[in-house]
Amino acid sequence: GNNNNAGDSASPAASGDAGGKKKFAIIFKNTGNPYGEKQMDGYKNAIEELGYEAILKAPDQPTAEAQIAMIEELISQKVAAIGIAANDPDALQPALEKAMKAGIKVLSLDSAVNAKSRLVHVNQADPELIGRTLIQGVVEMIGGSGEIAILSATSQATNQNAWIEWMKKELEDPKYKDVKLVKVAYGDDLRDKSVSEAEALLKSYPDLKGIIAPTTVGIAAAGKVLTDKGLKGKVQLTGLGLPSEMAEYIESGICPWMYLWNPIDVGYLSGYTAAALVDGKITGKVGDKFTAGTLGDKEVIQDGEGTQIMLGAPFKFDASNIAEWKTVY
Amino acid sequence: MKRQITESAGVPGAQINIGKPARSVSEMIGKFRELGLLGFILLLSVGVQLRNPSFLTWENISDIATNTAILSILAVGMMLVIITRGIDLSIGATLAVSGMISALLVSHYPGIHPLLAIASGIGIGLICGMVIGCLVAWVNILPIIATLGMMNVYRGLTFEASGGKWVSAHQMPTGFKAIATGTLFGVNNLILIAVAIYIVAYYFISHTRSGRRIYAVGSNPDSATISGIRSGRVLWLVYTIMGGLSGLAGVLWVSKFASAQGDTASGYELSVIAACVLGGVSIAGGVGKISGIVLGSVLLGILNNALPMIDVSPFWQMFIQGTIILIAVLINALVKRGIDRNHLMRRKI
Amino acid sequence: MADSEYALELKGITKIFPGIKALDDVYFKLKTGEIHALMGENGAGKSTFIKVITGVHAPEEGEMYLNGRQVAFNHPTDAQKAGIAAIYQHVTCYPDLSVTENIFMGHEKIRRRTRCILWDDMHKEAERLLGELGAGFDPRTPMGALSVAEQQLVEIAKALSVDAKIIIMDEPTAALTSNESEELYRIAERLRDNGASIIFISHRFEDMYRLASKVTVFRDSKYIGTWNVDEIANSDLIVAMVGREISQLFPKKEANIGEEILRVEGLGKAGYFADVSFSLRRGEILGLTGLVGAGRTEVCQTLFGVERYDKGKVIFKGKELKVRNPRDAMRQGIGYLSEDRQKQGLVLQWDIGRNITLSALEKFSGGGAIDKRKELEVAKSLAEKVGVKAKSVFDLVSSLSGGNQQKVVFAKLLTAELDVLILDEPTKGVDVGAKSAIYEMINELARSGYGIVLVSSEMPEVIGMCDRVAVMREGRITAMLDREVLTQEAILKASMDDTAPGALEGRRAEA
Amino acid sequence: MEPRVLANKKEFTFKSFFLQWEWLLVVLILAVSVMNASLSEYFLEYDNLRDATMGFLDKAFIVLPMVFIILMGDIDISVASIVTLSSVIMADLFNHGLPMGWAMVAGLAVGTICGWINGMLVVRFKELSSVIVTLATMIIYRGIAYILLKDQASGKFPDWFQYLGWEYIGGIPFILIAFAVCAIGFGWLLHKTVFGRRVYAIGNNATASRYSGVQVDKIKVLVFTLAGLMSAVTAMFLTSRMGSTRPNIASGYELEVIAMVVLGGISTAGGKGRMIGAILAVFLIGFLRYGLGLVNVSAQMLLIILGLLLILSVAIPQLKQRFASMRRI
Ligand SMILES: Nc1ncnc2c1ncn2[C@@H]1O[C@H](COP(=O)(O)OP(=O)(O)OP(=O)(O)O)[C@@H](O)[C@H]1O
Ligand SMILES: Nc1ncnc2c1ncn2[C@@H]1O[C@H](COP(=O)(O)OP(=O)(O)OP(=O)(O)O)[C@@H](O)[C@H]1O
Ligand SMILES: [Mg+2]
Ligand SMILES: [Mg+2]
């Protein structure tokens, strides 16, 4: 309705120049991250399928400051939409508000920005589902009782923190009374630090039965430590990780299974969402519906104060399917 | 201004005048510095051991040594650089680029012999080091600026080389991963490599001409020129060695963690510099010992290992590390002052 | 063995530095087995000439012959290999390295096959060399722990260690007192008798007369001439060096001594000096002399607030003086001209004007900003007053000769309102021309009411200039000599240990 | 001694006037502008250029005192941590109920104190060199920020606080005005006052300066304190631009700032260089980054370009000097 017109009239240049092709931008957290590259690929696929032009950006360091500068550059280029995987949920608010004022449709994907800074968030998976699934997974692996620990990314990582909250909630269920979460350690997504932290967990808690690492670097580092120390079968490992990084450890049985969504799909869905926002098919309100290419129909739902679009349940990788995925992403 | 009595730069005198009763004061200071550091390390270890009994187990000690090996290999090169009054901020990037390229190599040609992979990493590192060496030695760019600039360039090249991808464990042949996990006589290869490097470096800096010239250039560049030392070559050599060691460290890193990323070891240079400084290498040049940097690296290694083990809140870890570095450095300075003063008081006037 | 009677011959040497011709068509011949003095004013190009010979600088033009064969050195090692050794003007040591290493740097003893350094052999050899020089310290001590004089001995040992055919000494006696110089003379003579040829550079005539048989003079980068030492009169030599006559080195002056302005009582600093007491009156020149390392510089720097004293007190203009830093001292009225003008006196990369005004900047500042016109005016008038030779006050200080640099430092002292001037070796490394100008200036200042402390190691200077002389030995004042009893013998007696015949003899006996 | 009359004027040659480093920077800025304008049609739009300055000026405030520090032959690598700490403390106090104005004052005070501590350590422990001292305090200051804020972000500042980094006064960004005022102030301080003259003196020869009655220690402490204060000013602007703060903001700023100062022709080895050079360098790097961002050059290419620019900028004068001396021979 109204919103749609306002958007169009505020960005006439966007539709006018560059051979009439609208520009859709995506900003990932940092460059050189295969997960992010895949997400950007998916976004690009969607945008190009629709006949628009895609701009892929990522700063060299995963900082909010660098992302703010990129948002400014995109405002100057008068893009039609910005999809952003945020390095900080709040720190981009002023910049993104400025973008929205300039008529640019803003959505977040992967890691959300706060509700005021976006029209809609494309959520790869329900945090609650992830948190609960991971606990259920590790409890199954350790046979229902014993000590477990979490090896996370940085202590500030919002995604991870949300998942950890849900894990703790799940553990409150009386059926887990024999399962004890002994520690949440932070490897800062650095290889060396994650390895030290994993080693420290094993030494400080000799009876540790399972580790949940909801981050790629963390789970791979833990996999490596368990492999080197020959703890296969003694300490179980699960979490979220890239299939390519984890193939080795899933095939060897160090990590019986783990979860992840398909980052290409996250990007692809975001691309369609962005286009739907720009074309006025949706405004980001709860109940809006649109068709996201090969992913089929999607609906905007409530997410705290804001709204979101859910990709679906995370995918389970285990020895039976890892071989076909390890070369994909 | 009165000249401070400086600590003797090298080892030479130390073993030779055994049997002579008169030991120079400076030698004692040198000893004291290392003893003090050692004492601090022991105290820290005992403290940690009381909190967590699994600290002083054979396994944990071996883990600390393994995790410190790469740091201390780099510290050897950094010490040489600092002795010549320089600094190298690019080592993290050099490490990343050589690690990445050798990882790409083994992933494309899995049949390659691990030693060849190591050689390729060292080769890349050497080239990176040579470029910096040229800039510092012959274009006369300040080391901090030259290495800051090249740090960006090498880091950018790492991303370019990998096309934004990582090289993961399953893409690496077992032989390659075994470089870092393999053992000889029950000791991890990394530790053995580090020890071998210490021994070679010790011999190099105290028993060869080129080694002593590094000290000469750092101690007084002007007289070095006049003594016929080609300072340019020495500087170039030092940065090239640093590059080669970073390259080696790159391969070891990738092999140890079984993953090569674009942002491998970013910021690692600060840890290496901290290890050197803790080990008594003077930024003013001309002073530094292998034993010192080994202890410095070990102290950092212990901190990295112990803080998680005694359940220090992750939010306190950074503060504690910084404070320990500052206190160690300040105490070092104060003790040295005290000894100088004592020495003066003993002079009869 | 020689194809020529000359061990070394240089023809038409020209060396150009950016903006300066340091050597202009210079000739030099050194006979085998002679000691040849090389003299000239500051900046005449002597040190540059030496560096050309030793391959540190490559000349733009000219030829060099060694034993009649033409050679060209591109690098110091070439000269070393050809048997040329040099003791450079400024001590060129490695403070962090041991004495042994300092001696052998560049030509270490190594085992042929393994190229491993033979430390034992080197330490032994170093010990032997130092023993010959009468130095009593362990070759394993780091160079930085030695005093300046001891470092100079190491430099000499370094030159001896290469067994050179040609030895060049660039102002080796500048940091030595007469006794130590005497030791050096003996060594030089012994080397000559063993067949070495020596080039000896010095500003001291006594060195030349005592040692050399020939003297060559440079002036303004040019070759002036070569004479036999016993054939040329002192005054002619000065004319050759300066280009004009200098009538009187120490101008006669009538002292105009006023009230006491500074009194030092029992001053002491652990490890450096103790029980130093003296008083100074307006218009008086108080000499402070002694052997190197006697602690004179320390006493002066303590009074100036560079260092702290831990015993005694200083009474200045009737009140006890407390200074924490040089700024305090200057505010109260004490000025200090340091021993090392390049490191402590001047900002070499700056122009003359800025150097002069540095210590009195507040005077030209209104509301924080510097009044550049006023600054220029003051700088110019002071520079003219002390007679700096330059085009304008915008010339860089680094482009000036040593003597002119020293005049700039004097001009700097005149910007502040001072009562006491402490001059630490004001004529060290300054040529005869500038020397007499400086003496005149000192007298002038004393006449105008300053109290002056003159630290000097040169006996004639002390005797010629001072009203009273305090002699220091090992951190204590051993004698206070009035002008009437001021003789070389009295000073020597007071500056040396009564129990031993001489400091250096004492050392030798021990070694 | 014949009395001499010295000339009154400095010799002026056009050659030496135009051979100054600052002209090269001006030429480079023009070249970069021409390049940017030809690559992207958006570059020369007034609004874009104006907003671009807002993007890179925050850290430029630290460049000003860093010029003093580097001139004196020292270095301060703790500035970025000071930015973080004062931002975090400001936010923390605000969250504890202190009015925003007072919280800002407290933030500035904290920065100043941190700088003062650096300065005191540097002058009291001369044997340590400023690299080491500030390396240690760098870790400590950021460490304190982590202790204070833990994994929280802190925000919800009053609206007016956002004006600092985002608002315009008479069409000119407030941050640009503030920077201009500070730049003029620091330029005046360095080039016109006794204080500045003494800084140069210390940079050229600290010992001689001390013997000339310059209170070297006092000036050094003051300069480090100024650096702390200006880091806190940067903290205000950065926090305003991000709308919130975290203990990991501003990471890597120290190296960027040092690079700008060096590019500005400030040399440690002789106390040479002028404020205008550093200011030009700020704009050169700023416009270069922005321009390349407009054409969406990848982050890694940007890294390589900036690295090479830094190297070239120091290499050119060195090589020029070498060729000049060769030609004269
Ligand atoms: N490396 C250099 N670069 C530029 N100019 C130089 C250099 N070395 C010496 N000069 C200049 O060359 C001239 C000759 O200097 P030199 O040191 O040879 O004089 P000198 O006769 O030894 O003087 P002194 O008696 O003071 O030792 C001086 O004007 C000096 O400033
Ligand atoms: N490099 C040095 N390191 C340590 N102590 C030194 C050094 N040089 C001199 N000293 C000591 O400092 C004290 C005073 O030296 P100082 O230089 O003040 O003497 P001086 O009489 O002024 O000699 P000079 O003739 O060199 O000016 C002496 O006891 C000396 O041994
Ligand atoms: Mg000379
Ligand atoms: Mg003295």
TrEMBL record, chain B:
Q: Which GO terms describe its cellular component?
A: plasma membrane
Q: According to its UniProt record, where is this protein located?
A: Cell membrane
Acyltransferase among keywords:
no
Identify its membrane topology class: Multi-pass membrane protein
Question: What InterPro entries does the database record attribute to this sequence?
Answer: ABC_transp_permease
- Give the UniProt keywords, A-Z: Cell membrane, Membrane, Transmembrane, Transmembrane helix
Q: Name one Pfam family in it.
A: BPD_transp_2
CDD domains membership: TM_PBP1_transp_AraH_like
- Indicate yes or no for the key word Metal-binding: no
Question: Where does the UniProt entry say this protein principally localizes?
Answer: membrane
Which GO molecular-function terms appear in the entry?
transmembrane transporter activity
Which regions span the lipid bilayer? Answer: 35-52, 64-82, 89-109, 115-141, 178-205, 236-258, 270-303, 315-335
Would you tell me the protein name for this molecule? Rhamnose transport system permease protein
Q: Which organism is it from?
A: Cohnella lupini
TrEMBL record, chain C:
Name its cellular compartments. Answer: Cell membrane
Topology of this chain in the membrane: Peripheral membrane protein
| One Pfam family linked to the record | ABC_tran
User: Which UniProt keywords are given for this protein, alphabetically ordered?
Assistant: ATP-binding, Cell membrane, Membrane, Nucleotide-binding, Repeat, Sugar transport, Translocase, Transport
Residues covered by the ABC transporter domain: 8-245, 252-499
Q: Which GO terms describe its cellular component?
A: plasma membrane
Q: Where is the signal peptide?
A: none
GO function term, MF aspect, one: ATP hydrolysis activity
**PANTHER family recorded for this chain?**
CARBOHYDRATE TRANSPORT ATP-BINDING PROTEIN MG119-RELATED, D-ALLOSE IMPORT ATP-BINDING PROTEIN ALSA-RELATED
Its name, as the record gives it, is Monosaccharide ABC transporter ATP-binding protein (CUT2 family)
Organism classification: Bacteria, Bacillati, Bacillota, Bacilli, Bacillales
From TrEMBL, chain D:
Family annotation (InterPro entries) = ABC_transp_permease
Q: Which domain of life is it from?
A: Bacteria
UniProt KW Plastid keyword: no
| Membrane-spanning parts | 20-39, 60-89, 101-123, 130-149, 169-190, 219-238, 250-269, 276-295, 301-319
Q: Name one GO cellular component term.
A: plasma membrane
Note whether Transport occurs among the keywords: yes
Which keywords accompany this UniProt record? Cell inner membrane, Cell membrane, Membrane, Transmembrane, Transmembrane helix, Transport
- Membrane disposition: Multi-pass membrane protein
- The molecule here is called Autoinducer 2 import system permease protein LsrD
**Native organism:** Cohnella lupini
